[in-house]
Amino acid sequence: MKTVLFVCIENSCRSQIAEAFAKLYGTGKIEAYSSGSNPSGIVNSKAITSMLELGYDLSVHTSKSLDEIPQIEYDYVITMGCGDKCPFVKAKNRADWNIADPKNMSQDEFRIVRDEIKTRVVELLETV
Do the beta carbons of residue 82 and residue 7 sit within 8 Å? Predict the structure, then answer.
């Protein structure tokens, strides 16, 4: 099974949503993780709401630092547009999706970002 790590700054929105979609659609194919370079300690309530709309309970997730994930070489590390604030993590493949941070967006705008992440995760799973 391939390992995938999604990284953003706070690990409260984008990377959490990506991990959730990877778990929803990649069962048996990948092992998904997420973390943040400066974790907020909480999962954003709009992220929880937007994923509940699709039947996924993101409230069971926790905001994690890089020290709280397996210290392995990941098959894929996907950064979520955090630029220089994204840490270097050992990976065979890496990509930056450059997704806007939705934490201060309206719920409707947040859904657009959620759907963009879903599309990208599904595309990634097709190549794994």
Answer: yes
**Cα separation of 64 and 72, whole Å?**
16
Contact residues for 40 (Cβ-Cβ < 8 A; gap 6+): 10, 11, 12, 63
Measure CA 1 to chain center: 18
Q: Which CATH class is domain 2-121?
A: alpha beta
Furthest-apart CA atoms within the chain: distance in Å: 37
For the beta sheet containing 74-79, the strands, ordered from the edge strand earlier in sequence to the opposite edge, are 30-36, 2-8, 74-79, 91-96
Confidence of residue 86 (pLDDT cuts 50, 70, 90): low
Judged by DSSP in three states, 107 sits in helix
Any idea what the Cα angle at residue 39 is, between residues 57 and 41, rounded to 5°? 55
Q: pLDDT digits over 95-119, tens only?
A: 999 999 999 999 999 999 999 999 9
> How much is the pLDDT for 37?
86
**What are the residue numbers of the active site?**
8, 82, 86
